[in-house]
Amino acid sequence: MADSQIYLASTTAPVNIAVIKYWGKRDPKFNLPTNSSLSVTLAQSDLRTHTTASCSASYKTSDSLLLNGQDQDVSGARTQACFRELRSLRQKLEDSDSSVPKISTLPLKIVSENNFPTAAGLASSAAGFAALVRAIANLYELKEDPTDLSRIARQGSGSACRSLFGGYVGWQKGEQQDGSDSFAYQVAPASHWPQMRALILVVSAAKKGVSSTTGMQTTVATSSLFPSRANETVPRRMKEMEKAVQEKDFETFGKVTMMDSNSFHATCLDTYPPIFYLNDVSRAAIKVVESINAAAGKIIAAYTFDAGPNAVIYYLEENEKEVAGLFKAAIGEKDGWGVERGQKLDANSAAYESVAKEAQVAVDLLKEGVSRVILTGVGEGPIKTEEHLIDAKGEPVKKA
Amino acid sequence: MADSQIYLASTTAPVNIAVIKYWGKRDPKFNLPTNSSLSVTLAQSDLRTHTTASCSASYKTSDSLLLNGQDQDVSGARTQACFRELRSLRQKLEDSDSSVPKISTLPLKIVSENNFPTAAGLASSAAGFAALVRAIANLYELKEDPTDLSRIARQGSGSACRSLFGGYVGWQKGEQQDGSDSFAYQVAPASHWPQMRALILVVSAAKKGVSSTTGMQTTVATSSLFPSRANETVPRRMKEMEKAVQEKDFETFGKVTMMDSNSFHATCLDTYPPIFYLNDVSRAAIKVVESINAAAGKIIAAYTFDAGPNAVIYYLEENEKEVAGLFKAAIGEKDGWGVERGQKLDANSAAYESVAKEAQVAVDLLKEGVSRVILTGVGEGPIKTEEHLIDAKGEPVKKA
Lengths: 400, 400
Description:
Chains A, B: Pfam families: MDD_C (PF18376), MVD-like_N (PF22700). Chains A, B: It comes from Lophiotrema nucula. Chains A, B: It catalyses: (R)-5-diphosphomevalonate + ATP = isopentenyl diphosphate + ADP + phosphate + CO2. Chains A, B: InterPro entries: GHMP_kinase_C_sf (IPR036554), Mev_decarb (IPR005935), Mev_diP_decarb (IPR029765), MVD-like_N (IPR053859), Mvd1_C (IPR041431), Ribosomal_Su5_D2-typ_SF (IPR020568), Ribsml_uS5_D2-typ_fold_subgr (IPR014721). The structure is a homodimer of 400-residue chains. Helices cover 38% and strands 21% of the residues of chain A. The first copy, chain A, is α+β, with helices and mostly antiparallel strands. Chain A has two domains: 194 residues, Ribosomal Protein S5, domain 2; 182 residues, Alpha-Beta Plaits. In chain A, helix 7 packs across helix 8. The longest helix of chain A is centred in the middle third of the chain and has 21 residues. Chain A is globular. At the A-B interface, helix 5, helix 6 and helix 7 of A face helix 5, helix 6 and helix 7 of B.
């Protein structure tokens, strides 16, 4: 019976960490940013959202979303915008070809799982909305390319648009009021510069900071320094960063990454009331990166911080010993060093000793304040999978 | 014998804490700033430098300066500039009137003492150079007014120019290359708004940060946000602040004070490499001030931070209980509560209890990180004194 058929499609989608930060909306409704941004997509073996989208006339309930076993509210404007836009594209397909099954109006049932602890405070909404949009697009067999889909994912969560691509990804702010030219594009695939690695230091925050949506709106409204960042600094840095990626120029990549992270947090501090995402542990990570670069005589490590105290440290594979190895020696046993790549990584005690002299206070703060590490690198965009989180009866698959 | 006569003059000079910050030099040689600034002069009973200037043909040594019992190097360009300019003014007096003793070329012997611990990390160079210039001007019986002298003190230490006046003091950046129009002026005397109080929380820093001279030059050279602060934000805030002082409008005074401190520290963070003066204890002080203002339903307390982690909290006398009293209850026994005014101040445990609920982490950080407090308020400019630190034989007076 066609009515009870369960339509299913699944994908995984990656996390991305910006090196030119998105902060500030010129239009909250369409999630249109005040400036362009650029990110590195991280490997899904370490960080990903796995999502199955399904629809069926047999589903008794309206649209639903289960994330890590928890029912989520899908009535919010952002999720609704994604559903509406994807259904509208499916509707067009159905209208243009009568042989296409009419499924655009059926209830959607979506099941999602992250392979990383939610408590880590890693921005999961980018991977989440990218997976949601990609999974439904697969379900609906849409022909739209990732750039088209990025316009939709952007309405779910701004930075989600960048997670529809692998490698090095830009998000152009666009000029149109309807957001039609505000989409993501691939600057270079992961294969262009596959040596890029990222060490994430998960810092236990005393309490959750200001949410990024609230924070960025307050920054736009109150920071007197913000306009010069959005209008002058970022446009210049976007060009510098795209060139650095094209030329695989880590020194420029690293310097601009650090400067842009600092610029973003500076506008947070210039917000009224001020927003602080960096704490003394974050500052300690900065200090150690500075010591590593000083010892190397050039930039081989670059820190960046999103809207929280976690440090993400980019470096090239050839410097793994000098960067990740030193951090392993410095901060000692932590969850995360134990997994695959981490086990193979030797603690670089010799390099650590030389840095420790001038950064002992920082090292002590890191030892105490870092709760876990994630050792990862540049990776691919969303990957279609036949491993579904919903079974043939339309029920969420029970975990073993 | 005239040759052995000891000429002596003494003064005290105050510390000032800016509410519109000086950060950035447009000319390092003349100490010319990139933006105007405005400060409150603090009471000398709590914080002052006491300086005696003397000269005599009998002095065997060249110019010398003894500060808190330690010989200081006077060969630096800044001290030399002050000596040179003051001698030149004295020379003019001598040239114009032959009855004036010819002392401009005699060796100078200067003895200075601060009434506050150097270890407190309070910017003492402002009071120090103001006292040095004022004492020598007294010694030379110069007719120049404080504005004229502020041009000289500025060359010793930028913010010293503001310590030549009491009350509320502006320093106009000026436009001339020679610095002739870069001087301090009184916005209003202390008597205009004598209710202004200041609570200083001295925070023990793990180590000394970047010096302000080095720091501000790096900011000017590398911060992309700095020009908009210097060219747009500060000129607007100078007008707002002068008006707030004239109208005794604490809410505007407080809001602009906090925003300008944040703006200054934002440009430090936007410097490459970034400069951090605020630490987690500083942030905790900000949090408690925000809680106090939230409880009051208006701005009754305003934080500001110079190039270090110490918090200065301005408030009006009428709110001493709600502000200083709350801090006394929150951070407990510390050096500084014991002196005169501090003893009279009751710990406001009731107000503290209500704030503690939402700011317990901040309060714990303050308890641990504040090493001493100074309870003071707006005060007078330099005061001439007959209490000399050099005796009739030209020797430093031994302390009892």
